[in-house]
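My convention is simple: the sequence line spells out the residues, with the fold written below as integer tokens. I include a record here:
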Amino acid sequence: MISIQLKPKKEESLQRFHPWVFSGAIQRIEGKPAEGDLVEVLDNNRNFLAIGHYQIGSIAVRVVSFENIPVDNDFWNRKIQQAYSLRKSLGLVVPHQNNTYRLVHGEGDSLPGLIVDVYDDTAVMQAHSVGMHEIRQALAEAIVKNVPEVRNVYYKSETTLPFNAPITPEDGYLIGKETADLSALENGLTFHVDWLRGQKTGFFVDQRENRALLERYSSGRSVLNMFCYTGGFSVYALRGGAGLVHSVDSSTKAVELTDKNVQANFPNDTRHKSFDEDAFKYLNSLHLRDQQYDLIILDPPAFAKHREAIRNALKGYKRLNAKAFEQIAPGGILFTFSCSQVITKEQFRLAVFSAAAESKRNVRILHQLSQPADHPINIYHPEGEYLKGLVLWVE
């Protein structure tokens, strides 16, 4: 195995079990590793530190093991088995109630560069590193072997792998084939999931518990679900007894999928209406519509995907929340989120607080939200905490 030796004192983060080796920490590389190869990482005195996938970029190695053990098919089987056991122990695999969950969450499951979501009998796999891409078939076989409910594994990594990697990934089934009904069950609700053409793996599993919380606050309220995508929050609000629910997204396909999911759970329910429109344009036009909501959900796509975009992203969060504070009815509740990994909880909260101060309204925090337990955060890798949310009471 090719060895990567670190500069003096650069081993300290690995000794604290942080799973990344940055290129600037490397003293020398013995051999010529190809992107995706397994390499061993040594300290300056050539003591073993870790084994990981080599890649080109600022993160040079993603660690898969801090033990000097064989990284073979048995290794990957154990990793998948451990991930599934955790989800079972969390009570997420419940027949006729919930068959939708995240099976593997990258560094949170000590499988950096790998995401796997389960929808009924199909697992959708995304590789974010060439190393995971190269062993995709072995991983698919480990999933089917260790997750009894899964019969199909769909690989969806064309848009997630490094764009300059010397590979030509193709989306498609690694095991099994397309099922007739692309649907999943979440807390007793049915959702059509388009993992072939939809965003990410087809559904935002990470908002499951936050959707359930919203259901508790929905009774009798007029609800606005901005950036609705598949309409998850809208469907939960309807089940919670909302008086009306309006879903807004700039994507026509998203609006069509929202309507499909509402129809699947609440056929011909006149409480729901969807709008194919830009979020800011819709919020700006509310006074013309003579419409005021007393429960608003702001769940936008990531405003910042890299650190250079943080400043503009924070301006965007402030502007968006300011519009919501301006439009929400007295006694209203605002669910507001950021899924930008490079935005910290403190930065997001400051943007929302600034928007609240600008509105000159009295605002109280009811809940501080994060990602659910099937999106675990490795305690040694705080960067894994990407989803931030606040539930606010607006007087």
User: Anything to note?
Assistant: The radius of gyration is 22 Å. The mean pLDDT is 93. The chain has three domains: 2-65, 73-186, 204-394.
